[in-house]
Amino acid sequence: MSVLRRKTDRPRGIVLGPGAGGPGGGPVHHLRFEPPPELQAYVEHLWLVRWSLPAGQVLEAATLPHPVIHWTVEGGQSELVGVTRGRFVRHLEGSGRVVAVKFRPAGFCAYTRTSLHTLTDRRIPASQLLGAKVNLALRGLAALPDEAAVARLSGALGTLEVRPDAAAIEAGRIVAHVAMDREVTSVDALARHAGLSVLTLQRLFRAKVGVSPKWVIQRYRLHEALERIATSSHSGAPRLAELAYALGFTDQAHFCRVFKRFVGVAPMAYAARCRGRAPGRALLAADA
User: Fold this and answer.
1) Rg (CA), the chain
2) 59-90 pLDDT per residue, tens
């Protein structure tokens, strides 16, 4: 069984609950691993979250997911999780563990010819698209130690046929550009960069990413807003009008409405939460 290298870069946001100290301590452990070389074109990383909470304690964990597909294994349940357009919220209690693959944007298209918009906001049994043999490959995973379980999942993915998809590769490159270039704030500008019409870009994203280019742009700019607010030193929060303009929103009111819709609280309330997190709640994060 191959040994996977742990990722050491800082994830965007925080997915750990209060009091968690990473792999070495705390009630919640979060590990991320580089995929093996043969999977790197399609997989961002593999990840594991394990928790063990005292009786009666409930941890609310919330994330603002990326435009990607996840393959998650929890106990005997193996599922494909489509792009979640809203917040993803889960209440953790007792003990448990999730082992998962985080595909790159459009990366899952190498394993299916299904249009990814059919998975958006859905969870389906992994065997439905990956075939029944994945269940055999994962047999006994729940009893394995953490790193061995991640390696088993990686190995199971490695047994599947890969069929590179040129259109998906193009879509993935465009999404990567949105994530890296913080100046991209409109679909028209993104279409010009990609050398495509807006309609062609929309169709490409629907089939190969699962969501619209407008959603992808807004999601990455919201990730940036979370980071800026969490790290701001200006009176506990950045100047919201300046932040709204920088992220491409029409005005501060528009930004605040969108932020509250997806994050669940207004920007100033989120800033206060970052300064002093309430017990039993996890900061909203970008993704695992």
Assistant:
1) 19
2) 888 889 999 999 999 998 999 999 999 988 88
Q: Of 213, 181, 217, whose CA–CA distance to 198 is shortest?
A: 213
Tokens of 42: 């399609």
Q: How far apart are CA 28 and CA 52, in angstroms?
A: 7
Quote the domain boundaries for residue 67.
22-158
**154 and 172 both lie in a single domain:** no
197/270 same-domain check:
yes
Which residues are CB-neighbours of 14 under 8 A, at least 6 positions away?
A: 282, 283, 285
**Does residue 4 belong to any structural domain of this protein?**
no
How far is Cα 172 from Cα 204, in angstroms, rounded to an integer?
10
pTM confidence score = 0.89
Per-residue pLDDT tens over the stretch 3-52: 788 887 765 544 233 333 344 456 888 899 999 999 999 999 999 999 99
- Residue 284 CA to residue 261 CA, distance in Å, equals 13
> pLDDT, tens digit, for every residue of 199-253?
999 999 999 999 999 999 999 999 988 888 877 755 545 688 888 988 888 889 9
| Count of structural domains within the chain | 2
Residue 9 lies in a domain: no
Domain containing 241 — which CATH number? Answer: 1.10.10.60
Q: CB of 260 within 8 A of CB of 271?
A: no
Note whether 267 and 194 are same-domain residues: yes
Q: In this structure, are 96 and 193 located in the same domain?
A: no
